Amino acid sequence: MFERRKTKQLYIANVGIGSSFPISVQSMTNTDTRNVKATVEQIKQLEEAGCELIRVAVVDKQAAQAIKAIKQEISIPIIADIHFNPELAIESINSGVDALRLNPGNINNQEAIQQIVTLSKQKQIPIRIGINSGSLEKEFSHLPIVEGMVSSALKHIKLLEDFDFNLIKISLKSSSVPITIKAYELLAKTVDYPFHIGLTEAGTLKAGSVKSSIGIGHLLIKGIGDTIRVSLTENPVEEVLIAYEILKALELRQHGINFISCPTCGRCQIDVISLAKAVEEKLKGIKTPLTVAIMGCVVNGPGEAKHADIGIAGGDDKCVLFKKGQIIKTVEQKEVLDLLIKEISSII
After folding, report:
1. DSSP H/E element including 313
2. Which CATH class is domain 10-249?
3. From CA 177, how far away is CA 174, in angstroms rounded?
4. Where are the domains of the chain?
5. Burial (CB count within 10 angstroms: exposed 0-12, middle 13-18, buried 19+), residue 201
6. Residues with Cβ within 8 Å of residue 240, at least 6 apart in sequence
7. Residue ranges of the chain whose pLDDT lies below 50
8. For the purposes of burial, counting CB atoms within 10 Å of the CB of 245, is it exposed (0-12), middle (13-18) or buried (19 or more)?
9. For the whole prediction, is pTM greater than 0.90?
């Protein structure tokens, strides 16, 4: 297991953030926050997928005020995403938001920031300093991009600390995997605040998942990261599902089905690809930790998948069902999907 970077602790509502707590999965709605019904519906879908923190865009006063109504319908903490207009942060706090995300690169009014910090301290509302490589302040434009991002973060950490505020979480995001990794690693040497990690503008489902898995995975292996978001040009439910796949792959969280399936080869006598996809789809909503194996032949299963809670292996137009490496039953291929789902249902 990887040694976790030691950080300060804070709470966003009832969710503990920092090295003493599990790494939390976050996403962001893509609905118009002013449309309370649509936003609540999407957040509930995200909750069902396992989302633990949700961020919403606050584009104007109406959006900030909508937070109050949204909060009454959801179960997870809500974070207001603020750009340019510090007054929207104040309005969001007054609407009962659980945390703020501020981009220092586009809020330069120190007096307004002091007002936000004072009110946040009174209500114990954490603030995430969200540094994006594409919106750095001009004063850091002469620096290499990584050093500029870290310098910006340190400047705004000091500003909040000068106001005697330390409920701080930090993110340093870029669409570049190497830049993102280097920025987090550099800042981790200097401060012990919790980090929200991820890439920004990572891309569509396939490309964005690959980039995020590499970037987030690398940082987690280094022990860096306390909350994560996989940013995708896609239904945000996919962000949550992939985030958990990253955490499960590194054995940092157990959530839902852990799939093992062979890559297929000329030995396969069953349609492993279609079967694996069908099983994965049918088990999509299950949150119980369970390892399920779909293997194409007796070479790979049950031997190489003997640690699986349950699995199937194909051969001679038949399939064997096995649990923890022990063969339980042999059935016809056409029966195996229904049997497997039935057995899994009985387990969970």
Report:
1. strand 310-315
2. alpha beta
3. 7
4. 10-249, 257-347
5. middle
6. 25, 27, 46, 49, 50, 51, 230
7. none
8. middle
9. yes
